[in-house]
Design a protein that fits this description.
3 helices; alpha+beta; 2 domains; single chain; Alpha-Beta Plaits; flat; 5 strands; about 55% helix; 5-stranded antiparallel sheet
Amino acid sequence: MKLKGRFVIEAMGIPDLLVKTLNGIADSIKKTYTVSAMEVGNPEKTGDKFHTSFLEITVEFKNIQSMVEFMMNYTPTFVEVLEPYKMELTAGELEEIANSFMTKLHDYDKSLKSVAGVNKLLTRKLQERNTK
């Protein structure tokens, strides 16, 4: 079953780099998915140095699994399902989605724990150095 959705991906940074990054994300999406519309917003100033902008993109998917993978990989801040209006899932399809989600979640958890461990080690070494 084909699906179509509109997504907003937001980013913050320096204006020139911000637009370049969002266009790069759009190019990456186009390599894997069918894109029917896209817009990169003009950067807006949020503070002294940084600006925010967004990529609004309409993407077509071959199935719900590919849509969920897209959302896990690109983490949009807004999702609107355009098509279909109504759908049914088999237990197998739901299991695939749940397992993909949990795999990604475990990967994030492992990375976070690794970074926290390194941070703890570096903090301890810095404290040891400062007490000498």
